[in-house]
Amino acid sequence: MRKQKELIGLLALRISILFVVISFLAILIFISIKGFKVLNIGFLLEVPKDGMTKGGIFPAIIGTLYLSIGTIIFALPLGVLSAIYLIEYAKHKGLIKTIRIGVDALAGVPSVVFGLFGLAVFVKLFNFGVSILSGALTLGIMILPVIIKASEEAILAVPQEFKEASFAVGATKWQTITKIVLPTALPGIITGTILGIGRAAGETAPILFTAVTFYQRLLPHSIFDEVMALPYHIYALMTEGTASEYQVPIAYGTAVVLLGLVMSINFIAILIRIRGRRAKKW
Amino acid sequence: MVNHKIITKNLDLWYGDSPCLKNINISIPENAVTAIMGPSGCGKSTLLRVFNRLNDLIDGTRITGKVLLDEQDIYKDIKDIFHLRKKVGMVFQKVNPFPKTIFENVAYGLKIHGWKDKTKIEKKVHDSIIDVGLWDEVKDCLHKNAFSLSGGQQQRLCIARAIAIEPEVVLFDEPCSALDPISTAKIEQLIEELKQKYTIIIVTHNLQQAARVSDYTAFMLLGDLIEFSETNQMFTTPKDKRTENYLTGKFG
To answer: HSE on the CB side for A78, CA within 13 Å?
Structure first.
């Protein structure tokens, strides 16, 4: 009887993992088969042509790149500094707890809500318009919790002995943080940030009202220009226009590129984490 | 006539509400090795961390009484902890080089203290590593990570880091507890040499080590300083019954 229960349990585990692996492979294979038809160098390097029925997705790739870079520039310093404050400086237990709950809550907000927030605040209130800036700020706020959490964990993992040794030669708290704590925590912080960026790069809703446009012939010139972006490009190809027999393959091709991009970003994060762990000798 | 480098007067210390040091009066002789020994939890490490105010890092630490370094009260007269810690260096129980190169480890304190001139820094790093007898072992790998060294080498590197900024007092908090006997012997020999230049205070729960390296020994128990005298005298004719019991292994 006990043996049977064990067998049933094991079977459930195996079916679960099989289901996960099959789903993952199915997505990869399905998207690839549908998308590979349109993939070639021209697809990556050309602008869309003939009412989105031909040509490539170069502006969308560039747009997603710009948005990602903007997101990092905004969210990385803010996230790291917040984490430093929470761990090293904040004294009031109640305040820390409240901020942590706030950060966790932020992580659970649906991405379309961030989009609406970005529209109301960055696009309208600050008058940044529909632009790279508004989109990057919106995405940045969305991934702040990821960066803060990763930074906090990385900072907490720095051994107390390192800090004591630094204080013992006369370093101030700020010197200790900038010269010892942050360099030691850096691989963890970078890994967390890159994973956050991977998520931001693939999101549609936060940039829907804040940054993107369906079609743009020229590349953006400044952070106040609107851009094309890969996830929105897919959405637009599937919902707008009339020549769906041409648009759908392009949408799948774009999906392959987006998938490849996000997976490469995550892969880089994993590489940095592995290197960081290997270098860690304490 | 012995000159006293550090003097405590009626020193009490609490962590929150629990007293950790009770009415400590001790005078640490200059250019000598003073050992502080006692069983775990007696307050010996806490006392050591009073001398460079490292206890300040722990919330809820309260101190009354005086701690004088060269007749200056380190809690009142020395306004900037930075200056205190320049004079009072420390070597830790858990061997703790920074995850940086060997060179950077020693140069760290110098840079903290505003050294800019590259050649001067290089010279000082070189001299400090020579002083701890590590030069021949590391001269070809100064720019390798400090963690590539053995435990004993790492601890000597930590000593080099502490003495690079030319302190007057060096505190050792059980510096050999994680080391093998050969490395321990090297560190002890080094401490013997260093006392020419520095006043040394070493916390240990190893009686033999206290006997080997120190000129003076303090014995502590549950936050009290039980006895303080020349090491020879304490180990041959302890005045207090409790010291005798500890030395003869009746408890520990």
So the answer is: 15
